[in-house]
Amino acid sequence: MADANQAPREVAELSFEEALEELKQIVGRLERGEGRLDDAIEAYERGARLKAHCEAKLKEAQAKIERIGLAPDGTARTEPFDKE
Amino acid sequence: MTDLDLPAATPGNLPELSVSEISRAIKRTLEDRFERVRVRGEISGFKRAASGHLYLTLKDAEAAIDAVCWKGTAARLGLRPEDGMEVVATGRITTFPGRSKYQLVIDSLELAGEGALLKLLEDRRRRLAEEGLFAEARKRPLPYLPEVIGVVTSPTGAVIRDILHRLADRFPRHVLVWPVLVQGEGAAEQVARAIRGFNALPEGGAVPRPDVLIVARGGGSLEDLWAFNEEVVVRAAAESAIPLISAVGHETDTTLIDYASDRRAPTPTAAAEIAVPVRGELVATLLDLERRKLGAGQRLLAERRTAVESLGRGLPDPVRLLGEKSQALDERIERLELAWRGFLQARAARAAELGARLPHPRQQIAYAERGLAELRHRLEGVVPRLTLPARRALAEVQAGTRLPLCAERQLARARDALEAWGARLETLSYEKTLERGFAVVHGPDGLVTRAAQLAAGEALELQFADGRAPAVAGGGGTPRKKAPPPAAPTQERLL
Question: What are the boundaries of the region Disordered (chain B) (predicted)?
Answer without folding.
Answer: 469-495
